[in-house]
Each structure stands twice: as C-alpha cells, then as structure tokens.
Design a protein that fits this description.
single chain; mainly beta; Herpes Virus-1; four-stranded mixed beta sheet; elongated; binds zinc ion
Length: 367
C-alpha cells in the first residue's frame, strides 16, 4: 500500500491510495485513522465492509471506483469532514453508513436502490441529494435529523419509505409525484419537519393507510392532497400541523383518533356518513363552515340594497346569501370574509347559519 504524506511533518493530512487489485476494503480497516485526509479506492473494489473508515475525523474526500456496489454498516460513520459523495454505481448504502457526517452537503446516488436505516442520520448540513432515480427503499430514519432547505425527489421505483425516514429534518419539499408503486410509508415519516412546505404524492399509489404521526408537528405544512385509494387516516397523522387545505378521497372509510387534533387552521370537514370518524379526530380544529351546513332558501327582495363587503349593489344574476343576523351579502364575498372571521361583516355577530336568498319573480301585470 502506498501512503503519501503531503508534508513529512504533517501526519494529519495524508493521501491514502489503496493498492490496485484490492476487491474488498475489510471491516474496520481504517477505523479512527484520523491522519487520512483523502482516499483513493481503486477500480476493482466492490465492497467497503462495516466500519471500514469509521470516525476518520479528518477525511475530506473519498474517490469511489465505478466497480463499488455496496457500502456496509457504519462504513463512514462520524467522518465529520466528508463533504461531497459521488456514489457512481453503488447499489446499497448500509445502516448508519454516513451517520453523523456533520459536514456532508452533497450526495449524488445515480444507481442506489437501497438506503438502509439511519444511512444519513444526523447529517446536519445535508443540502442536496440528487440522481435518486433508482431508489426503491428508504430505511427507517434514513434522513432523520438532516440539514435544512433540502428538496428531494424520488421516482417510479420507490416502494417503501421507512418509519421516521425524514423526521426532525429541515427538508422543505418532497416530490413523490411519480411514485405510483409506493406501498409503504412508515409511522412518523415526516414528523416535526419544521420547514416542510409540501409533499406531493402521485394522485394514486398502492398505499391504503396514512400512517400514525405522518405529518405530526409540521408547523408549516398547509396543504396536502390525500392520494386516491387511501382507506384510513391513522392516529395523530396530522396532529398539530398547519394543514388548512386538504382533499379527502372517496375511498376514505376511517379517520382515527386525534388524526387532525389541534389543526387550528383546518375547518372541521363534513364527511360522508359512511366514513367512521373518531370523536377526537378533529378536536381543536375550526368549527364546521356555516356554508357547509344544510341551508334553507328565503324569498327576499334585495334589489335596492348593497353588499357591505364589496359595496356594490346586487346584480340580477348574482348569488346572494343571508347570515343568521339577517344581513345579506354576495355569496362569494361572504365566503371570502368567513374564511378569515366567523362573524358577520356588518354587525360582527357570530355566524350560526347561512341561508340562500332567492329573489321573488316579478310578474308583469297583464292589462
Ligand atoms: Zn359583495
Ligand atoms: Zn349581521
């Protein structure tokens, strides 16, 4: 083996060239060798065994060969200066393989299919993860506690997102819109992702239930389209989130306890009778919209009145409604107002009912 020190007196800045002909870097081979700054792994190496480079705390650059297929458990755990990974043809990233690589920012993984549990756990500076085209499985907590402002996209091969896969991470946006084969999303997959703004699922996937605590404590997630085919929403799936806009698919049969507990921006929806809704499912949400309750129709001549929200008088073809306090508005104006406040725009009384105003048809006198 050739070991080249850049400076004879500097044993902390060594370039390591593993000899040609090597096929496996054995387990623990360079564990805690904190004199390595850069390592060249030659063509021909197919596997880096467990803990091969663990806690090489000055290791900044690793040159992977195109023959490398597997990186085993903890192979680079705690390499806190490692910055950039070009994984070429690597197929499997083992458990904790890059855990606690605190300076890791960029990872390109064009042939990775399996990311095992905790693979990037605590990579606090992880910023871009690219070339994820072939990822099939994301292990438990694989990206938990990772960096901020990450946008990540996965593709058709993705089948499984493990328990807590992204929890407590700074991820902003997860694009899953091509993942029609997705079968499993584990509990708490996105729990307490404080920066999470959007997760785009494919309109239809193989998933039947949204897991427990899926988006719990996501304080910036305001909207989510539940994919078609979802039958059940598990306990605390959206608890304490900022969810405001959500679509419920026709396939839905069950909303479990505390599923939307304390989603204070969400109006309690009116779901079809067949859906079993736990009494605590929508506890702490805004009341049911008065516009969604069954409303009566009243005959009323409003021809010489005006809407005190937009200050226009009522045109012939416009929809008009009356609140319980008897004040009348354009229906569109009233809805927009009501989205912001529960009170009448004119007298500030609480809105308890909304009636549809029908103007009496004026019959011409036949002379
Ligand atoms: Zn109006
Ligand atoms: Zn009023």
């Amino acid at each position: 083996m050739e070991i080249v020190a850049q400076d004879k007196n500097d044993f902390k800045n060594v370039v390591l060239r593993i000899p040609d002909g090597t096929t496996i870097v054995k387990s623990g081979a360079f564990s805690k060798c904190n004199w390595i700054a850069e390592v060249y792994i030659p063509e021909g190496v197919v596997k880096i065994e467990e803990f091969a480079f663990k806690y090489c705390e000055n290791l900044e650059t690793v040159h992977f060969p195109s023959t490398l297929l597997e990186i085993e458990t903890g192979a680079f755990i705690g390499c806190s200066k490692l910055n950039n990974l070009q994984l070429k043809n690597v197929h499997t990233i083992g458990r904790r393989a890059f855990g606690c690589c605190l300076n890791l920012e960029n990872v390109a993984m064009p042939h990775v299919a399996v990311i095992q549990d905790f693979a990037f756990y605590m990579c606090k500076n992880l910023d871009t993860v690219t070339n994820t085209d072939n990822v099939q499985k994301i292990g438990n907590e694989a990206f938990a506690h990772t960096g901020e402002n990450v946008l990540i996209e996965f593709h058709e091969p993705l089948v499984c997102i493990g328990t807590g896969a992204f929890k407590y991470s700074g991820i902003c946006c997860v694009i899953l819109s091509k993942c029609v084969n997705l079968q499993i999303v584990g509990a708490g997959a996105f729990e307490k992702c404080e920066h999470l703004l959007a997760v785009g699922f494919a309109p239809k996937t193989q998933i039947k239930l949204l897991p427990p605590k899926m988006f719990r404590n996501c304080h910036n997630l305001t909207g989510f389209n539940i994919p078609k085919g979802i039958v059940s929403i598990s306990p605390a799936a959206f608890e304490n989130s900022a969810i405001q806009n959500i679509t419920f698919p026709d396939s839905l049969k069950h909303v479990a306890r505390r599923a939307f507990h304390n989603c204070s921006r969400l109006r309690t929806p009116v779901l079809p009778r067949e859906v079993m809704v736990d009494p605590s499912a929508f506890l702490g949400c805004r009341p049911i919209s008065a516009f969604e309750m069954p409303s009566a129709t009243v005959q009323l001549d409003v021809s010489d009145k005006m809407c005190s929200i937009c200050l226009n008088s009522f045109g012939k073809e416009e929809n008009i409604c009356r609140f319980g306090c008897s004040h009348v508005f354009h229906t569109e104006c009233a809805k927009q107002w009501y989205d912001m406040a529960n009170t009448c725009a004119y007298c500030r009384q609480e809105v308890t009912k909304v009636e549809v105003v029908q103007r009496p048809v004026k019959r011409r006198k036949i002379v």
